[in-house]
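Subject line: Sequence and fold of a protein, written as structure tokens
Enclosed: The protein record, placed directly beneath this head.
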Amino acid sequence: MKISTRGRYALKMMVEFAMTPESPTKIVQVSKSYGISEKYLEQIVSILAKAKLVKSIRGSQGGYLLVKPVDEYSVGEILRLTEGSLSPVDCLDANGYCVHSDFCVTQNLFKKIEDAINNVVDNISLKDLLEDELEIRRREKEKALL
């Protein structure tokens, strides 16, 4: 399983929105912070907005806001929305079917991998990522002062 840029950038964008939860964040800010194309971010934010994870605020002071507290978003929720299934093999997907599943020697192994992935991403919140980001930025400032 490999997370695409869409999933990675969605997480980064959500962290940026979480940095200022009471004031809207413009896509251009996210683009500058992470060096990501505005057009690509706009495609991703539309997915997040359709799923009601963020809301759009119009106007010159507008941008995007989270719709719920940062600790109520899981990494798994965001990744599944932008990536689809996190399953390592198609036969474990909700739509996947394999005629050999009753006799497949590797299906149990792949199910354990899927369970491990889900356990990790479902138990890390956006708040956890925000705390990590704040620590990274703190270390960058310290380094710049040296």
